[in-house]
Amino acid sequence: MKQRGFTIVELLIVIVVIGILAAIVIVAFNGVQNRAHATSIQSDIRSIAKVMEAARVNSTTERYPANAAALESAGVKFSKNSYNAAIFCLPGAGTTWGIAVDGKDGKSYQYTSLTNKVEEYSGKVQGTSGGDTCPAIGTSGS
Length: 142
Hints:
Helices cover 41% and strands 18% of the residues. It is an alpha+beta fold. It has one domain (8-140). A hairpin with a 4-residue loop joins strand 2 (98-103) and strand 3.
């Protein structure tokens, strides 16, 4: 009478193959997740830039919003799931502004009204909005 079933070696091979496939899926998922965070951050920064420009144009003084309350009323919002920290700066009496963010994708990004583009920031953004320094334009935050 023959016995039916799997040998230990066959079971171990199946377990190893499943483990390898799981590792591949996890790495691929993390890559997709990081790209989603980066895209969300860049989209948020571009939206903030548009809101800031609209607020400046609509202002009687041609100045950017000067504080958190003015930013909120101008409609500035962040996708909080993508950020570790964000610093907003408004030097030059409201004629220029910048933002630096530390994303959950492991990278930092910056934008200034002087360059009008989102760039990777080589340093690490520390603190929260209204922090002491603004790496994006190298001046004190407000």
